F-box/FBD/LRR-repeat protein At3g49040
Amino acid sequence: MLNASPKLQILKLTDVNMSSNKGNRIGQKWNQPKCVPECLLFNLETFVWIGHEWQRKDEKEIATYILRNTRRLKKATFSTKPIEREKLKKLEKRRRMLDELANVDRASNSCHFVFESM
């Protein structure tokens, strides 16, 4: 998709419920592209991820890849789902993941991070 959108300026990912009836996630595994898409190198300015779960390793890999390779990124927003009171252990894991993303070496020095809960 990114290779077919060389002038893409805003990338918005929305985590829709991709679970089967048995609770197993369906879909494809993340495979890092061999070449960085042109839109990341030259045009993407805004990256938004709504409903990020912070549970899957590939979610972190995707976010890290975009941050490391997007030279003109001005704003990266990660909007997470709220954590129920019974699952507060997830809060510490989420905080560590946010800290890791905030410390990723980024291609754009002017990128402003926004972390919010929906």
User: Anything to note?
Assistant: Helices lie at 38-42, 57-69, 89-102. The two ends are 27 Å apart (CA to CA). Residues 36-117 form one domain.
